[in-house]
Design brief:
- The protein is built from eight helices and 14 strands.
- By secondary structure, the chain is of the alpha+beta class.
- The longest helix is centred in the last third of the chain and has 36 residues.
- The chain starts with a helix and ends with a helix.
C-alpha cells in the first residue's frame, strides 16, 4: 500500500468537513421549510375585492400598492404614544380599512408612498369594522342599518406584518446558503491544491508549505520506516495523524526523547497510557499518547535506531540505580564516621 501525505491531508479534510456539510445542509433545509410557512410567505395582492379569499387561503401576508387613501381620523395608541393610524379606500362599493404605522402615514401624507408597494397582514376584525361603519354612517346622516356590510371586516394592517421574523428567516437562508457554498468551494480547492488545506499550515514553521508537502510525500513513498494506525515514521519525520489535525515533527530537531507511563480510568477499569515526549532547547515540545506499549516502543526504535526497555525493565533498572545510589551514600557516611572515630582516639 502506497502511503502519501497528500492523501492523508485529503482524507482528514473530508473527515472534518463532511459533518459540517451535513449540519449546514440540515440547517438550510430547516430554515427553508420555515420560510415556506404561512407566517413567513408574502404574496402580491392586486385585487382588493379578493381580500377575503386570500385570508381564507392562509395567504395573510401580502404586498399591496397604496394609492388614493383617506384618513379616517382614528389612531392606535400605546399609552400616550400614537403608533398607527387608520385609512380607508372605497373599492367596488365597499370600504376597505388600512392601518399604517406612524412613519408610513407621514410618508403617505407627503406623497412619498403613492403607488409604492407596502407589506401588510390581513386581519379579520369585525368589531372595528362595525364601529367604523357606524361612525361613517352617522357622518353621512344615515343609520348603521343603512350601511350594514358596507365596511369590509378584513383590515390590511401594516403593523401586524411580521417583518422582523421574515427578515431573520431570509437572512438565515442566505447565511446558511453562503456558508455551505463557501465550504464546498474550499473543499474543492483544498482537495485540488493541498497547500490550501488548513491542516498543512503546520508545515509553515519549516518553510514553504508546498515544498515540504512534496518532500514528506517522497519520504512516505521512498523512505518509510514505520506505519501503524495514525502514526508514521520516515527517515526524517514523525507524522501523527488525527481527524482534526496532523502533527509533523522533524526528527533532526529532537534532542530529548522520552517515554512516560501513567494510569487512567476508562470506565470502571484502569489502563496504562504511554506518552511520548520530544523536545529540544529551543521551541520544540511535542507530546503524543499511545494505548499500546509495543507501538510506542516501535516508534521510538525507528526514530532513534535503538530499542527501548520495556516498562517493567525500566522500573527495575531505575530501582536498582536508586538502591546503588543509597548504598554508595551509606558507605560514604560509614567511612566518614570511621575517620572521625580514629581522629578522636589519636587525640
Amino acid at each position: 500500500m502506497q502511503h502519501s501525505f497528500r492523501k492523508l491531508l485529503r482524507k482528514n479534510l473530508l473527515y472534518v468537513t463532511f459533518p459540517l456539510v451535513l449540519i449546514l445542509s440540515a440547517l438550510l433545509l430547516v430554515v427553508f421549510q420555515i420560510s415556506r410557512l404561512e407566517m413567513f410567505r408574502t404574496t402580491a395582492l392586486s385585487d382588493y375585492t379578493k381580500v377575503g379569499d386570500y385570508y381564507a387561503a392562509e395567504q395573510k401576508n401580502v404586498t399591496i400598492t397604496v394609492s388614493n387613501l383617506k384618513s379616517l381620523g382614528f389612531s392606535r395608541t400605546d399609552g400616550e404614544k400614537k403608533t398607527a393610524e387608520y385609512f380607508y379606500r372605497i373599492e367596488n362599493g365597499r370600504l376597505q380599512l388600512f392601518v399604517l404605522s406612524e412613519a408610513s402615514a407621514r410618508r403617505y401624507r407627503s406623497n412619498q408612498m403613492e403607488n409604492r408597494p407596502l407589506t401588510v397582514r390581513i386581519e379579520k376584525d369585525e368589531v372595528t369594522a362595525q364601529y367604523i361603519e357606524r361612525e361613517y354612517a352617522q357622518s353621512l346622516g344615515f343609520t348603521s342599518d343603512d350601511l350594514e356590510g358596507f365596511c369590509s371586516v378584513y383590515v390590511l394592517d401594516e403593523t401586524a406584518y411580521p417583518r422582523m421574523r421574515i427578515v431573520i428567516v431570509r437572512v438565515a437562508v442566505i447565511t446558511f446558503s453562503v456558508l455551505l457554498g463557501l465550504l464546498m468551494l474550499y473543499v474543492i480547492l483544498a482537495l485540488s491544491f493541498p497547500t490550501l488545506n488548513y491542516q498543512a499550515w503546520t508545515l509553515k514553521r519549516f518553510g514553504h508549505i508546498g515544498r515540504y508537502i512534496r518532500k514528506i510525500d517522497r519520504e512516505m513513498d521512498k523512505k518509510l520506516r514505520y506505519h501503524q494506525d495514525h502514526v508514521t515514521v520516515t527517515e526524517n519525520y514523525l507524522i501523527m495523524s488525527y481527524i482534526s489535525r496532523i502533527d509533523v515533527v522533524r526528527i533532526d530537531d529532537i534532542k530529548y526523547l522520552s517515554k512516560h507511563v501513567e494510569k487512567r480510568k476508562r470506565g470502571l477499569r484502569a489502563i496504562h497510557v504511554y506518552r511520548l515526549t520530544a523536545s529540544n532547547a529551543d521551541d520544540l515540545y511535542f507530546e503524543a499518547d499511545f494505548f499500546e506499549e509495543d507501538i510506542i516502543n516501535d516508534v521510538i526504535y525507528f526514530m532513534r535506531g535503538e530499542p527501548i526497555l520495556e516498562y517493567e525493565e525500566q522500573v527495575m533498572k531505575e530501582k536498582e540505580e536508586e538502591e546503588n545510589r543509597i548504598a554508595e551514600n551509606m558507605r560514604e557516611l560509614e567511612k566518614e564516621a570511621e575517620e572521625e572515630e580514629m581522629a578522636e582516639e589519636r587525640s
